[in-house]
Amino acid sequence: MNEPTAETRKPRVAVVFGGRSSEHGISCVTAGSVLKAIDPDVYDVVPIGIATDGRWVLESGDPERLRIESADRLPAVDGSRAAITLAQEADATGLVVTEPSQPPRTLGEVDVVFPVLHGPWGEDGTIQGMFEMAGVRYVGAGVLASAVSMDKAYMKVVLQAAGLATMPSITVTARSWARDAAGIRERSAALGYPLFVKPARGGSSIGISKAHDASELDEAIEEALRHDPRVLVEVAAEGAREVECGVLQALDGTPETSLPAELRVGGDHEFYDFAAKYLPGESTEIDIPANLPGDVAERLRDLAAQAFEAVGCEGLARVDFFVMPDHSLVVNEINTMPGFTPTSMYPQMWAASGVDYPALVDRLIQLALARGTGLR
């Protein structure tokens, strides 16, 4: 039997997940959804897990193993599985599997990587730089856009330079907090309480606290610093509505926008925290499309596309807004690798906009296959 050639074989997609950040478990859940959605008749899929210690392994492709059970029992990459590496050759980059007492075996050439990594070392430009150097195509934003969007403090600088409104804030580092806590308390008070305190490069609402007054500020900063040595202290958008918009590139590179969606958090959740985002049975309600005046919705979608292009994003992004009581729009953040879990907003918005989950995943893979690496 003849071996398949590069022209006849199915494109090989490496789904990379897990990672070293605090969002390891959520990345695994996202990977389960993506693995389930990729059509095996069209693509040859290789699941690659990155353990919390940084070890790359050939993981199970069973989506059920990556299902979320509770906040205390998130799935994790099994670091004891066979090690896997990207091996660059003269004209391609392949996958090599290494097992104890066994000779290395090659899985073949990688056509595209789908990195469903959240947080540092995955969503911040680090792994994107590795893929660029290895000459491997990959889904999503490049190095600079990933790094800028991951760091909420620098994201604000870029968005403000593009004329987009953001909430007032200050940046606190572990060094500045140790050196001048009193000054930081004073600058925070000048912003006006209540304040949100969050890791500058975090996600999934991990490490975020709401400081209602000065008595809660120190604890909130200490909690955020446990997750990131850079922290954002930001004015709370009191009375605002939280509305999100998905951005997805067309094959010609044009950013297209989804119907906006509004999050309404009830019950015991004062804000959209981890439990409200990911755990079933929580009291979060989602309106798709968001109940907004037509002109406001159109303006929001236009600003989402502007934010996407301001940071130089590629592939996909979710842009989160505060819709203020006077219908002015403030960008909360841009997420270059939004979650793909069953309850995630991004796929829900695109499904409501006529692009179902499998089609969405396929579009992203096709976009990655169509673009090269390096400067573009």
Automatic annotation (TrEMBL):
<dbReference type="GO" id="GO:0008716">
    <property type="term" value="F:D-alanine-D-alanine ligase activity"/>
</dbReference>
<feature type="binding site">
    <location>
        <position position="335"/>
    </location>
    <ligand>
        <name>Mg(2+) 2</name>
    </ligand>
</feature>
<feature type="active site">
    <location>
        <position position="204"/>
    </location>
</feature>
<dbReference type="InterPro" id="IPR005905">
    <property type="entry name" value="D_ala_D_ala"/>
</dbReference>
<keyword id="KW-0460">Magnesium</keyword>
<dbReference type="GO" id="GO:0005524">
    <property type="term" value="F:ATP binding"/>
</dbReference>
<dbReference type="InterPro" id="IPR011761">
    <property type="entry name" value="ATP-grasp"/>
</dbReference>
<dbReference type="GO" id="GO:0005829">
    <property type="term" value="C:cytosol"/>
</dbReference>
<dbReference type="Pfam" id="PF01820">
    <property type="entry name" value="Dala_Dala_lig_N"/>
</dbReference>
<feature type="domain" description="ATP-grasp">
    <location>
        <begin position="156"/>
        <end position="366"/>
    </location>
</feature>
<keyword id="KW-0133">Cell shape</keyword>
<feature type="binding site">
    <location>
        <begin position="204"/>
        <end position="205"/>
    </location>
    <ligand>
        <name>ATP</name>
    </ligand>
</feature>
<dbReference type="GO" id="GO:0071555">
    <property type="term" value="P:cell wall organization"/>
</dbReference>
<feature type="active site">
    <location>
        <position position="344"/>
    </location>
</feature>
<feature type="active site">
    <location>
        <position position="23"/>
    </location>
</feature>
<keyword id="KW-0963">Cytoplasm</keyword>
<feature type="binding site">
    <location>
        <begin position="196"/>
        <end position="198"/>
    </location>
    <ligand>
        <name>ATP</name>
    </ligand>
</feature>
<dbReference type="GO" id="GO:0009252">
    <property type="term" value="P:peptidoglycan biosynthetic process"/>
</dbReference>
<dbReference type="InterPro" id="IPR000291">
    <property type="entry name" value="D-Ala_lig_Van_CS"/>
</dbReference>
<feature type="binding site">
    <location>
        <position position="333"/>
    </location>
    <ligand>
        <name>Mg(2+) 2</name>
    </ligand>
</feature>
<comment type="function">
    <text>Cell wall formation.</text>
</comment>
<protein>
    <recommendedName>
        <fullName>D-alanine--D-alanine ligase</fullName>
        <ecNumber>6.3.2.4</ecNumber>
    </recommendedName>
</protein>
<keyword id="KW-0436">Ligase</keyword>
<keyword id="KW-0464">Manganese</keyword>
<dbReference type="InterPro" id="IPR016185">
    <property type="entry name" value="PreATP-grasp_dom_sf"/>
</dbReference>
<keyword id="KW-0547">Nucleotide-binding</keyword>
<dbReference type="Pfam" id="PF07478">
    <property type="entry name" value="Dala_Dala_lig_C"/>
</dbReference>
<feature type="binding site">
    <location>
        <position position="333"/>
    </location>
    <ligand>
        <name>Mg(2+) 1</name>
    </ligand>
</feature>
<dbReference type="InterPro" id="IPR013815">
    <property type="entry name" value="ATP_grasp_subdomain_1"/>
</dbReference>
<dbReference type="InterPro" id="IPR011127">
    <property type="entry name" value="Dala_Dala_lig_N"/>
</dbReference>
<keyword id="KW-0961">Cell wall biogenesis/degradation</keyword>
<comment type="similarity">
    <text>Belongs to the D-alanine--D-alanine ligase family.</text>
</comment>
<dbReference type="GO" id="GO:0008360">
    <property type="term" value="P:regulation of cell shape"/>
</dbReference>
<comment type="pathway">
    <text>Glycan biosynthesis.</text>
</comment>
<feature type="binding site">
    <location>
        <begin position="332"/>
        <end position="333"/>
    </location>
    <ligand>
        <name>ATP</name>
    </ligand>
</feature>
<dbReference type="GO" id="GO:0046872">
    <property type="term" value="F:metal ion binding"/>
</dbReference>
<feature type="binding site">
    <location>
        <begin position="234"/>
        <end position="242"/>
    </location>
    <ligand>
        <name>ATP</name>
    </ligand>
</feature>
<feature type="binding site">
    <location>
        <position position="320"/>
    </location>
    <ligand>
        <name>Mg(2+) 1</name>
    </ligand>
</feature>
<feature type="binding site">
    <location>
        <position position="152"/>
    </location>
    <ligand>
        <name>ATP</name>
    </ligand>
</feature>
<comment type="pathway">
    <text>Cell wall biogenesis; peptidoglycan biosynthesis.</text>
</comment>
<keyword id="KW-0479">Metal-binding</keyword>
<keyword id="KW-0067">ATP-binding</keyword>
